């Protein structure tokens, strides 16, 4: 499955990062791709023939059809965005989400507006990943709490706002917080090289340890020589995480470097030497914008007497980004149409966004992303509303009435009994302790 997903995900990542541009940012193409793949779910079977038909809703039928289908323009657009057929994408999502990685928290959820459907047919819900939560649309505080819970607090707020015209929302969350198997050493920022603009603005940077990390100069067809550093995290139950850093000539566009980084990530999980790794004895001595090669006499057990040593110097970094995912190439327009079909909820527009963060330091790495999509209907037409503000500015009466409703719905003897009453003629100032919100 990893091999099957790598090509589609690399292509999707290229489109997503292209919409962001050259600015400093972090994103999770996988988080967006998984959300699209959940929208590709099709019913496992049809509803029983003797099921009583629902009340006819011509508007919903016109907009949503009889249910989700792998046919039609929206399905074709969604498959193109996913880079594979809908059934395969949905199966990949089920496998990843229902068997989560020990070091990568993952979650998806589908919410619908109360009184507007029940989250799709039973057959369609059964085909969703088992771990996908389905329920009524929470308020904004509930969505923010969901984002915090499923990202270990790394993401504080949900990327979209709940408004009265939101009829459904779909979300995915990914989060990781790991320690390096071998921490970095510390180096003076001057080690970044005289030509580095960062060397003048920093005092200390990270240097890869003498063992445990992997470094290489790699020859690529796309960009020529690039440099690669791989930092592995501590493993849990045999599962790990490797953070790959790739740099090319400073003049190369970021989209090209990101594409090569995805290409080189294929063997990173296995600890394999990247294809195209160059021998240091094939490189000239001296300094380039990407590396410095020097030679010295040492005692070595290398078979031919020529030992190769690598280390890497790189800065700490962090990023927090928010991305608009509504560009047609990213597939969320098609996904919203497919999801509207599944829920039998006609929509007029959609919105999709992702918020992501990452932090790379001496002792570890943490990152999280929450991706959200909502389906929108138009608000009611404009009319006239009157608002009355009632002013209790002179003496008035107060009656405190008991309520007494039992669990069985029967009212008890205290129900409706006035317990206290008053006539207010002497108002008091609001206490200072109560002036602040609690």
Question: Would you give an account of this structure?
Answer:
This protein has 438 residues and is of the alpha+beta class. It has helices at 2-20, 29-39, 58-64, 73-82, 86-98, 122-127, 140-150, 254-264, 332-343; strands at residues 105-112, 133-136, 166-179, 185-188, 204-207, 214-220, 224-232, 242-247, 286-287, 292-293, 313-314, 317-324, 349-360, 364-376, 396-401, 418-424. Helix 1 runs antiparallel to helix 8 (254-264). The longest helix has 19 residues, at 2-20. The protein is elongated, with a radius of gyration of 29 Å. Residues 46-68 have low confidence and may be disordered.
What would the keywords be for this entry?
alpha+beta; Antithrombin, Chain I, domain 2; 3 domains; 6-stranded mixed beta sheet; 3-stranded antiparallel beta sheet; 9 helices; 16 strands; elongated
What secondary-structure arrangement, pairings included, does this model have?
Layout: H1 2-20, H2 29-39, H3 58-64, H4 73-82, H5 86-98, E1 105-112, H6 122-127, E2 133-136, H7 140-150, E3 166-179, E4 185-188, E5 204-207, E6 214-220, E7 224-232, E8 242-247, H8 254-264, E9 286-287, E10 292-293, E11 313-314, E12 317-324, H9 332-343, E13 349-360, E14 364-376, E15 396-401, E16 418-424
Parallel strand pairs: 1-2
Antiparallel strand pairs: 1-3, 3-14, 4-5, 5-11, 6-7, 7-8, 9-10, 12-13, 13-14, 15-16
């Amino acid at each position: 499955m990893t091999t099957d997903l790598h090509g589609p995900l690399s292509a999707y990542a290229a489109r997503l990062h292209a919409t962001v541009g050259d600015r400093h940012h972090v994103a999770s193409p996988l988080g967006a791709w998984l959300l699209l793949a959940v929208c590709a779910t099709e019913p496992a079977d049809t509803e029983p023939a003797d099921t009583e038909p629902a009340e006819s809703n011509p508007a919903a039928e016109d907009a949503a059809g009889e249910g989700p289908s792998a046919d039609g323009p929206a399905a074709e657009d969604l498959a193109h965005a996913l880079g594979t057929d809908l059934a395969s994408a949905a199966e990949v999502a089920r496998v990843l989400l229902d068997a989560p990685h020990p070091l990568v928290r993952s979650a998806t959820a589908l919410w619908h507006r109360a009184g507007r459907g029940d989250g799709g047919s039973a057959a369609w819900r059964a085909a969703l990943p088992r771990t996908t939560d389905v329920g009524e649309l929470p308020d904004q505080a509930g969505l923010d709490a969901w984002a915090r819970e499923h990202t270990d607090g790394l993401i504080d707020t949900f990327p979209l706002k709940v408004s009265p015209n939101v009829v459904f929302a779909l979300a995915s969350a990914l989060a990781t917080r790991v320690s390096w198997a071998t921490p970095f050493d510390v180096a003076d920022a001057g080690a970044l090289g005289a030509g580095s603009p960062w060397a003048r603005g920093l005092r200390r940077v990270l240097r890869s340890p003498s063992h445990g990390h992997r470094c290489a100069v790699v020859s690529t067809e796309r960009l020529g020589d690039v440099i690669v550093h791989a930092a592995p995290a501590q493993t849990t139950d045999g599962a790990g995480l490797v953070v790959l850093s790739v740099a090319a000539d400073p003049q190369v566009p970021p989209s090209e470097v990101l594409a090569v980084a995805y290409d080189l990530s294929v063997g990173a999980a296995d600890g394999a030497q990247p294809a195209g790794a160059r021998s240091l004895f094939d490189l000239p001595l001296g300094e380039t914008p990407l590396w410095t090669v020097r030679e010295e006499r040492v005692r070595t057990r290398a078979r031919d007497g020529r030992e190769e040593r690598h280390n890497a110097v790189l800065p700490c970094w962090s990023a927090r980004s928010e991305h608009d995912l509504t560009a047609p190439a990213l597939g969320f327009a098609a996904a919203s149409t497919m999801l509207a079909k599944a829920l039998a909820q006609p929509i007029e527009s959609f919105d999709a966004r992702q918020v992501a963060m990452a932090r790379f330091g001496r002792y570890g790495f943490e990152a999280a992303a929450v991706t959200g999509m909502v389906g929108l209907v138009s608000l009611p037409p404009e009319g006239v509303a009157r608002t009355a503000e009632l002013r209790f500015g002179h003496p008035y009466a107060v009656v405190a009435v008991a309520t007494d409703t039992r669990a069985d719905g029967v009212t008890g003897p205290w129900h409706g009994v006035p317990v206290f009453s008053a006539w207010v003629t002497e108002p008091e100032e609001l206490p200072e302790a109560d002036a602040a919100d609690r």
